[in-house]
Design a protein that fits this description.
four-stranded antiparallel β-sheet, single chain, alpha/beta, membrane, 10 helices, Rossmann fold, iron, six-stranded mixed β-sheet
């Protein structure tokens, strides 16, 4: 990590984290800092532990050892409701009941803020309206989810997580199965959420060039350990790509974004 980034305040942090499925260790002695109000991309080959790490940082899996911290406090001490208020999570392939509209789905994001018999409040409505507006889904609010395109459905699910009004958004492969136009649309949305709405976003991404163009902080993972972490310009190199992905490449400057652009050989 570069000198400037080492001074960023960490919103989420993992200390000496190991994660296992039964007797099989997936992640070993991981130390990971997620800078506050930045877009962090987790990148690496299949089986490198990206999604497992995301789930663990979301509190959906418990590490076999080590600790995860949110604003310096162990998430093991936070209740499920408090975590849901502060951290929005979108996993791969979410499924909603048949016939559910976009508005119905987004309203589910308010459950962490409501008591069992609490009435729908102006604050709840305002949070849902803002989430629909941010994701460009206002005009589709009363449309059934199962009639939407893949990109529209993905934006509806992100709207639900935004309705939670958490400071952190964790996304597992959010661009998978989306066409190029919808991928760009979604990545632009993430940029707006970080830049204008002060969100901390962590996303698992498969496209290295996409990560380099949009993310401010990249974590390269290999075999459940961190190979490199920092700014794209500090992390993306021919040597790093050969080590992590086993691919020969050249890295040039993206003529549009000025970020590293990897061209496999």
């Amino acid at each position: 990590m570069s000198g400037d980034e080492s001074h960023m305040s960490a919103k989420l942090a993992g200390q000496d984290v190991s994660i296992a499925y039964g007797d099989r260790r997936i992640v070993e002695n991981l130390d990971l800092l997620v800078p506050e109000r930045r877009f962090t991309a987790l990148v690496g080959p299949n089986g490198s532990g990206k999604s497992t790490i995301l789930r663990t940082f979301a509190g959906l899996m418990a590490p076999s050892c080590g600790s995860i911290f949110l604003d310096g406090r162990s998430i093991a001490t936070l209740g499920t409701r408090e975590m849901a208020r502060r951290v929005g999570v979108l996993l791969q392939g979410p499924v909603a009941p048949e016939g559910l509209t976009v508005r119905d789905l987004v309203q589910q994001g308010r459950y962490p803020h409501r008591s069992l018999f609490g009435r729908w409040s102006e604050a709840d409505q305002a949070a849902c309206d803002e989430a629909l507006m941010l994701t460009g889904m206002t005009t589709l609010a009363d449309t059934p989810l199962d009639t939407l395109s893949g990109g529209q459905r993905q934006r509806a699910w992100i709207a639900m997580t935004l309705a939670q009004q958490g400071e952190v958004l964790l996304l597992d492969e959010p661009t998978t199965y989306l066409d190029l136009a919808h991928q760009v649309e979604l990545m632009d949305l993430i940029t707006v959420l970080v830049r204008d709405h002060r969100k901390t976003v962590v996303a698992v991404l498969h496209d290295l060039n996409q990560a380099a163009r949009y993310a401010e902080h990249i974590v390269l993972l290999k075999g459940g350990t961190i190979s490199a972490a920092g700014r794209p310009s500090d992390v993306i190199s021919q040597e790093a790509i050969a080590d992590v992905f086993g691919v020969r490449s050249i890295v040039i400057r993206d003529p549009v974004a000025g970020t590293p652009l990897c061209i496999p050989l």
